[in-house]
Amino acid sequence: MQTLEPATGQPSKYEFFLERARQVPSPKTIVVYPCDESSLRAAVEAAEARLIEPVLVGPAEKIRLVARKHQLNISPFEIVNAGGSEEAAAKGVQLIKEGKGEVLMKGSLHTDELMRSVTSATTGLRTKRRISHVFIMDVPGHEGPLIITDAAINIFPDLECKRDIIQNAIDLCTEFAPSPPRVAILSAVETVTTKIPSTIDAAALCKMADRGQITGGIVDGPLAFDNAVDPEAARIKGIKSEVAGRAEILVVPDLEAGNMLAKNLTFLLKADAAGIVLGARVPIILTSRADSLRARLASCAAAALYADSRRRHTHLPEA
């Protein structure tokens, strides 16, 4: 197994919640169409790390062939046969609905194929909460994990959608944060102006948090990126806030901004980017072939902690 140490030589910021995840029951995880080395290895390594209990869904012979070719031991895992990727996605979602899994994990099919089955109005896994994605970033030089949302699903979220995006991230963050997470609603500036609509949304979301429509976190905005994450930048701007300079969750205005921010951190600062989808009946792990082992395991750990929270609490989204 590869090392968990980042290329920078610094200790991984994921270790804290990886260790926490090993202390909760490993959730039965429906792995949809793990038909290449990357996706099958991700499931095997997460199981070896005691983070998940995989159930492999897809063409059984193809899965076994990949395992033999790359010397992956899948003998401990149940295999549910399914023809192609579309059938595997539908069957995986059905297994979740039947209570046979607590986490859904993407294999080598396209994300769109999996999410079509997840979001189906008749057979999917929708809840009253809007589905959203979070990146959990391990950024070299930054004190702790940094959550960016939503950079993968909601393209131009409206105010109600942003409320759910924030609540999903808070619900996740509370599983590995010792205190209420600090949430920065990002814009280009830190003052409210009608010329920049995201600042209006930020002000409204802060008031929604004041009135209990968003719970469990400390919410502030609009904040520009610099004064959201850098205490000195916040001091220079004269911003007095519990969040400014110390944000743990960064809520971006739209998918384009979030995607560019996450990729800038990944490719320029060599940050790791774990990620999961929240707001459905179960957490969904979306791994990529480009993900490091650290990021893949961290995604599984986050999903395991969230699944454990669902067992213990009732505030998480229900169907």
Structural write-up:
It is a single chain. The protein is built from 11 helices and 11 strands. The chain is globular, with a radius of gyration of 19 Å. An 11-stranded mixed sheet has the order 3-2-1-4-11-10-5-6-9-7-8, sandwiched between helices. The protein is of the alpha/beta class and 319 residues long. The chain is 39% helix and 17% strand. It has helices at 15-21, 37-48, 60-69, 85-97, 111-119, 159-173, 197-210, 225-229, 231-237, 255-268, 293-312, and strands at residues 28-32, 53-58, 78-81, 103-106, 132-138, 146-149, 182-186, 218-223, 249-251, 272-278, 284-285. It folds into 2 domains: 1-127 and 280-319, Rossmann fold (3-Layer(aba) Sandwich); 136-271, 3-Layer(aba) Sandwich (Isopropylmalate Dehydrogenase), CATH 3.40.718. Helix 2 (37-48) links the parallel strand 1 and strand 2.
Attribute tags:
11 helices; 11-stranded mixed sheet; alpha/beta; Rossmann fold; Isopropylmalate Dehydrogenase; 2 domains; globular; 11 strands; 39% helix; 319 residues
What is the spatial order of strands in the main beta sheet? 3-2-1-4-11-10-5-6-9-7-8
Give the overall pLDDT as a whole number.
91
CATH structural class of the largest domain? Alpha Beta
Rg, please? 19 Å
Q: Supply the number of structural domains.
A: 2
Q: What is the share of helical residues?
A: 25-40%
CATH architecture of the largest domain: 3-Layer(aba) Sandwich
Summing up helix and strand content along with how strands pair, one would put the structural category as: alpha/beta
The CATH topology of the largest domain is Rossmann fold
Bin the strand percentage.
15-25%
Distance between the termini: 38 Å
**What's the β-strand tally?**
11
